[in-house]
Input
Amino acid sequence: MGYKVVKFGGSSLADAAQFRKVADIIKSDDKRRFVVPSAPGKRFKEDIKVTDMLYKCYELASSNVDFSEEFQKIKDRYNGIISELGIDLSLDDEFGVIASELKLRPAKDYAASRGEFLNGIVLAKYLGFNFVDAADVIIFDTKGNLVLDATEKAVRSRLKGLDNAVIPGFYGRNTEGFIKTFSRGGSDVTGSIIASSVKAEIYENWTDVSGFLVADPRIVEKPDVINVITYRELRELAYMGASVLHEDAIFPVRSSGIPINIRNTNRPQDDGTMIVSDDFNFSRESLSHTITGIAGRKGFSTINIEKAMMNSEKGFGMKVLKVLYDNGVSFEHMPSGIDTMSITVDSSQLEPVKEKVLADIRRAVNPDHLEIEDGIALLAVVGRRMKNTRGTVARIFASMAHARINIKMIDQGSSELNVIIGVSEHDLSEAVRRIYDMFINSEK
Ligand code: ASP
Output
């Protein structure tokens, strides 16, 4: 029988009521045997995540300030969950160890990791599952990078023969023996590693939304959920700012061909979003829309360069790009005409070196005209089906024209997986809505 690895985010484990939902979900499917919890998250909007409370304790401890009041709040949260669930468990020993470690040798990652560690103990007890400390299986090198091979080996040998286990997310141990965490939201990565190590049939990532949305709900009212998305499409959308999953969570499962299913702990009846490999057989989905998702990001600038006969001047592009390289600015897009070139860059990278970049370009290629335009937004229209559908770009143009939105740049990736358009920042929301109408509403 195959396994399912299930990861639950902080809001899914924020209080006893959420723990009960999580246990119901796990117990409703025999295959859900390896569980990766986050630390308790927010119970309501103004609440504070346990991880943030732990960072606070660390800050106080490292400046030699008494942190017992802050630490008491953390104890209260766990003790509240334990007593409400009615389990026979005391974390007093663990609390004692953590407090004295923080006093003796305060370490940031150690402090932060204790949220997942303690939550893992509570969840394992509540489910009647084995507890496996992530420090024993997730291995980092001394620079703080994950060592995937050694980790997968350690996970496999530790889980061998175990029917079930709770493995806390977010942290591991480096080769010098110190606790190390991933960046924020890193329990997603732990789940992915466990799934690839045990060759799970699926990695279920349980959170508080029913999957990825086709567009940002702050812009489009009640957008559709994306049913199926490929890893590549997800990368494109994530780059443009759509986020639900930690970026690094994709790689371990992607290389093992394991799908990720984003699910909602508060609405387990929803199918959520399935993230599948790029060569997935899509024959079932013949009725879906042409596009998969739309995402946009503000904060770009374009460097517009004009020079007669630019086209025939050898090395022109190279010289311009070298200026950017030398100034530490990376470029996003570079559409060019016969006598013009326009380079889109991240404004925050350009800003500190703006004048120097202009001067260096002047010196390098002696343009007839050179200017920088700020306040550009990039919008990505992403979809694996665009490749076999004619007229996608024409439809984008038409919807922008009807809204009198000026397209400043358009770039179709060579994979034909995405079309990027540059518009003025104040047109971004309207552009997203128009494209949503054109491709989603009108295809319904
Ligand atoms: N608890 C950690 C955080 O708040 C890790 C996680 O939730 O994935 O970032």
Observations:
- The first strand starts at residue 4 and ends at 8.
- The longest helix spans residues 108-127.
- Residues 10, 38-39, 49, 51, 115, 169-170, 184-187 surround aspartic acid (CB under 6 Å).
